[in-house]
Structure formats: structure tokens, C-alpha cells
Write a structure and sequence with these properties.
By secondary structure, the chain is of the alpha+beta class. It has eleven helices and 18 strands. Strands 6-5-12-9-8-3-13 form a seven-stranded mixed beta sheet. The protein has a five-stranded antiparallel beta sheet with strand order 14-15-16-17-18, with no helix packed on it. The protein has a two-stranded antiparallel sheet with strand order 1-2. Helix 1 packs antiparallel against helix 2.
């Protein structure tokens, strides 16, 4: 193993060379220290750290469980010959497998790469990478959907199967080339393109050195983990991709909380009635099966999942089921996606999503600082009292003004003056001045 040593790792060797001539005991101690450093570095290099989908790291080499549909397959055990495939056998395989129909056992993604399956080996990609490819490229066929082998290609050690038309359009490069004449002449593409993208997928079956001689039955056996070529009904092909408890529930026409709408349709068929309602701020759809006096089932669906099942029987109290029983069945470890009870709190960046059933809506925006109180928050100060108008003041009358105008409207009229008493002598006018001369 080639490993580049850092400066800290080479220091013990330098110290050993510098002090080797001093004492044999010191030399032996330095060599032991260097060996210990190599041992620690080797253990650190051999340790594998994996990160699961939730961002949790572990040193056991095992990440968190994923959906069963994306886990690694169980390798097949088909006996293969060592002789190389000849032209006659190749034509026979093309004749047998061309236009052959089967059912998808796993989700098939779109994209130029597709899925790669090793003969009697494992699937690539698998786990988190498989799920990422389906999310990035899109899904071409779901588990239980019908697949048609439209084309088979042979390479040195590969067999490439184009399913449902393949992921690449025909004349992938020629449709981008246009030919036109000069002097203002228009251009026309070499191959006409309708502009519609392909919705098929690709599956590559790989061998070690070369493609051995195979029969049609052997090829189907090698592809069995991904494609089932048996004669089945659509419901049988769909349920074969599910765990046994979930498969039995669908075949027995039993609906469980957590099922998808596709599972409900396979289990119960089309509902007799539908209704759309709102509970708080959550919209849901109610599927109704059955009519009285028979049992009536109310299946509540939010998005694409069953969130509640209510069974009403004549003369009995309705039975309601709200616990999700499907999440654990679809996981590789049997654990639900969200563990029950209190757990670690996840901090969300950006807009905060509130649950309308358990959380109150956010209040209106305010300019008040945190913890600040306004005078109106005090009940004693905030009580409104009757309005009191100020009393109007009377002003003294001005000289020459009408006395009636000076009085306010609500003022009492002034009392008349008392008559003069006759017993008292009236004042006499002053005598004229004798010094004044008449004109």
C-alpha cells in the first residue's frame, strides 16, 4: 500500500537517525514509537465513515435503512457456460427476447445510464444512489407496470435492453444537424424531430469477460430480480413487489392507514362516492365504500396517502384507525420513517411550516420590542370613561353691544331694575351758570 507520509509522521524517523549513534536503547524506543504511529495511521485509514439520508454519521459501514424498493437485490444463481456467444445464438436470443413483455419488480429510472445488473451479482446503483437517480432523472416504470423489450444490443461483455422505447430518442445526434443552401436559402434538419422526449429506460446486463452462450430461459432468470416474465394479472404483478403482510391485506380487500391511492384501488376498486372537505387548513378527500345496511368504509386521503380509515356498522359505534401501519413494512429495517414519541428537534431554514391542527397561526407583525408593554396593556388605564366637555365661560359685555348677544344661550334673563322710591327726593339738576352769555 502506497501512503504519503506527512511531516508529523516523518519526525520520529529523523529523530531516530539523529540519535541512533547516542544509545541503542534510545534507538529501540524510537523504532517502537514509529511502529505505533504506522499502526494508528493504518487503523484510521481502514475506518469507513458512512452518512445516511438524515445526515447521521456512523462508523459501522451501515447507513440508515431505505425503502425496500431501492435496496440491494439478492444475487441469482444461474449456471453459465465458459463458451462465448456465437452469431447463431445471438440471433436466436434477439428473436426470443425482442418484444417480450414483463412486469417491473423495481422502479426503473429514465436517463442514458439506466440500471446496471451484474450476472449472478449485485445491482448498481442501489440504496441512496438508486433513489437519487430516480428523483433526478424521473421514473419510467413503477413496480407492477408492464415493460416491453423494444431493442437488444450486444457488446463485448454486455447485453443492453431498451425498455418501452429506451431513454434516448432515435438519431440522437443527427437530429441536431441541419443542412441548407446559400444565398438566403433555408435550412432543414437531417432527421425530423417531433420534440417529444422518450419515456423508456435502459437495463444493462454485464458479464466478466465475454457474453457466454445463453438461452432465453437463462436470460429471464438473470433478469428476474428486476423484471418478471411470468404470466400474471396486473394485481398479482403489483402485489408481488410488496411485503407479505401488505400483499395479503390488498388481496383480502383490506385498507390500512399509510397505503397509497394505487394500493387502495387494487384492494377496493373505484369508490362509490367521493367528497372533498377541509379540516382546519388541511384539505383531504373522502372515499366511501359500501351502503347501508352493509358496512360502510370512509377512507380519508391527503395527497397520495391514507391518513384515516373509519368503518361504520349497523347498530354499532364507528371504528376509527389513524395509526400508520405501512411505513414500517416498506422500510428495510421495519422502522417507521418518523419514530413515535419525542425525538430530536429539526430546525427548518426559511419559511416555517406550521401544523394547522396543533399550532396556532402566527400573530400580525408589530413594532413592539420583545417583552415591551404598552400603556393600553394595563386594564386600569385602558378602561374608557365618559367624555366630559369643558364648561363655557361668560365674558363681560362690550360697550355698545346688544346685551342679548352677550348672554349665553343657556343663561338666565337679567332681572328688570327696581322702580325708584317716591319718598326719597329726586336729585335736582344743576343751576345754569350765570356767567354764560346767551348768543
Amino acid at each position: 500500500m502506497n501512503r504519503r507520509l506527512s511531516l508529523q509522521q516523518t519526525r520520529p524517523f529523523r529523530a531516530t537517525q539523529a540519535n541512533a549513534k547516542q544509545s541503542p536503547a534510545f534507538c529501540r524506543a524510537a523504532i517502537r514509537c514509529a511502529a505505533a504511529i504506522f499502526l494508528v495511521a493504518g487503523v484510521a485509514a481502514a475506518q469507513v465513515i458512512t452518512i445516511d439520508s438524515h445526515g447521521n454519521s456512523s462508523t459501522d459501514g451501515k447507513g440508515s435503512a431505505v425503502d425496500r424498493r431501492y435496496q440491494q437485490i439478492m444475487p441469482t444463481n444461474v449456471e453459465l457456460t465458459k463458451s462465448e456467444l456465437d452469431a447463431k445464438t445471438r440471433l436466436e436470443l434477439i428473436r426470443l427476447m425482442q418484444a417480450e413483455q414483463g412486469f417491473a419488480m423495481r422502479p426503473f429510472p429514465r436517463g442514458h445510464k439506466g440500471l446496471v445488473l451484474a450476472a449472478n451479482g449485485k445491482l448498481e446503483p442501489a440504496g441512496e444512489k438508486y433513489l437519487d437517480q430516480v428523483v433526478k432523472e424521473g421514473i419510467s416504470a413503477k413496480p407492477g407496470d408492464r415493460l416491453v423489450v423494444t431493442e437488444i444490443k450486444f457488446e463485448r461483455s454486455k447485453m443492453i435492453f431498451e425498455l418501452n422505447g429506451g431513454p434516448d430518442p432515435k438519431h440522437r445526434f443527427l437530429r441536431h444537424i441541419q443542412i441548407g443552401g446559400g444565398m438566403g436559402g433555408g435550412t432543414s434538419p437531417v432527421v425530423q424531430d417531433n420534440g417529444q422526449g422518450q419515456v423508456g429506460s435502459r437495463l444493462t446486463l454485464t458479464f466478466q469477460d465475454h457474453v457466454p452462450e445463453l438461452t432465453g430461459a437463462q436470460v429471464k432468470a438473470l433478469l428476474a430480480p428486476l423484471i418478471s416474465f411470468d404470466v400474471k394479472t396486473p394485481i398479482q404483478a403489483f402485489t408481488d413487489t410488496l411485503p407479505k403482510p401488505l400483499k395479503d391485506a390488498i388481496l383480502n380487500h383490506h385498507v390500512m392507514v399509510g397505503m397509497s391511492t394505487e394500493m387502495v384501488l387494487y384492494a377496493k376498486g373505484q369508490p362509490e362516492a367521493k367528497s372533498r372537505e377541509m379540516e382546519g387548513q388541511m384539505p383531504f378527500e373522502e372515499w366511501i365504500y359500501g351502503q347501508p345496511p352493509k358496512n360502510v368504509e370512509f377512507i380519508r386521503i391527503n395527497g397520495n396517502r391514507v391518513i384515516r380509515v373509519e368503518v361504520a356498522k349497523m347498530g354499532e359505534k364507528p371504528i376509527t384507525f389513524t395509526k400508520d401501519e405501512v411505513e414500517g413494512l416498506m422500510r428495510t429495517d421495519g422502522a417507521p420513517l418518523t419514530p413515535p414519541g419525542p425525538g430530536p428537534r429539526t430546525v427548518q431554514m426559511g419559511d416555517v411550516v406550521r401544523d394547522p391542527d396543533t399550532q396556532a397561526p402566527a400573530g400580525p407583525p408589530s413594532l413592539r420590542n420583545p417583552g415591551e408593554k404598552l400603556p393600553t396593556d394595563d386594564k386600569k388605564i385602558g378602561v374608557m370613561k365618559p367624555v366630559q366637555f369643558p364648561k363655557q365661560k361668560t365674558e363681560p359685555p362690550q360697550p355698545g353691544a346688544n346685551p342679548e348677544d352677550a348672554q349665553p344661550p343657556d343663561a338666565t334673563p337679567a332681572k328688570p331694575p327696581k322702580p325708584a322710591d317716591s319718598s326719597q327726593p329726586s336729585p335736582q339738576p344743576n343751576p345754569p351758570d350765570s356767567s354764560a352769555q346767551p348768543n
